[in-house]
Amino acid sequence: MIRRSEEKTLDVKQMFGGQGQAKMYRILEGAGEMYGKGRVFNHLFLEPGCEIGWHIHHGDGETYYILKGHGEYSDNGTLVTLGPGDVAFVDDGEGHSLKNSGPETLEAIALILYKD
Question: What pTM was estimated for this model as a whole?
Answer without folding.
Answer: 0.95
